[in-house]
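Lab notebook, bench 4. Still working through the backlog of constructs that have no structural model yet. Next entry is a single chain of 420 residues. Request: give me the structure tokens for it.
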Amino acid sequence: MPLDKYIIVAKNFGYLSVLNALNMVLPLISIPYLTNTIGTSYYGVYIYVLVLVQSINVITQYGFQFSATKKISQNRNDKAFVERISSTVLVARFFIATICIALILGMSRWLLDTDDRLLMFITALGMVYGDVFIPTWLFQGMERMKFVTIVNAVSKILFTLLIFIVISSPNDYRYILLLNSVGFIVAAVLSMTLVKVQFGLSLRMPRLNDVWHELRESFTLFLSMIGIDLYRNVNVIVLKFFVSDAAVGIYAIAEKVIKATQSFITPISQALFPHVSLKIKSEGIGSSMHLLYRASFLLVCFTIAASVGIYLCGDFLVSLTGKDFGEIKPLMSMMYPVLVFGCLNYLLGIVGLVNLGQQKFFFYAVFLSGTVSLLLLLLFARYWGVQIAAITISMSEILLFIACACRLGYLHKKESQSKK
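Model written out:
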């Protein structure tokens, strides 16, 4: 790899590391304040609606964060192509978001069964449409991760500041998602400004055929992302029907600690995705596989160290959240495999298999692991509560890792044999 490419990857890793440091530090500031101000039950209600909104955002991404990133990375010097893809993806995401919102409002009798939950969902719509107009896939494809860092940092810091200004009593929990919406909208405006000023792109209404083409091409990736969401986010939604709001809040805190730590490590994979995409196009599979193996070793070292760190800081983290959250530490211990194998699955599955054109296999692997997780949760949540949720999410990541590792090993062996 030329020295300048190492420098680009290193810079992108650095920018994403700054962002993910914020992802880790800011929740440590805001979550203790929230849990102590609004209590476990209201925090559980907030998390439930937040997960619904985050699920919509996963659907609206539709796999574009990988398919569009790959196309832009491989055609970044063709301005007309980048403009067309960017316009098409933005319009497609807007319509998908609108359809999802309409469906959830249509099922509000079951999903948003109180006035407070319905009001909170409506105030969170700024998060949905704001996310639509934050083209992370464009910045990533152009390997300009500093813009991803700037945009997301503005959103997260603004949200954290507003939490301390606005939320002062338990009843203020209704406004938390509104504050989040403000952060997303500001980030979206900033993103669109950067698209115009930094890249000189003129976005316009795309042809319907182009929208349909992108939707069809990204469909398999979309299914894979839904599958991942199935076992990473749906636990909170399912638990709502079996345990109290307070128990949901406790589980959500433990999961947030693991995911926040995980997000601090994933810049390695995020920075590598566009680079590996370009490397496969120019040099073939072999050199990319060796790069994946080396990165996997680094990830394992980092995640094991992070797991030890969480264990050692467990009592401190529990003390920050308040006396009602004493069950967090054992739940976090059950979810250490999520930290280790979740990061590896992003690297091997997304950076590896997707870039190698193995989207269908990755979808099948995700679907199988997600289905096993959901079935076990539905069967045993009534008896084991939040503990079974922690166990099933860990089990899913392990199953997915085994599938991805075996497939990559098979592809590498096949490629080696073809050269003999």
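Notes after review: The chain has 20 helices and no strands. The chain has a mean pLDDT of 82. Flag for follow-up if needed.
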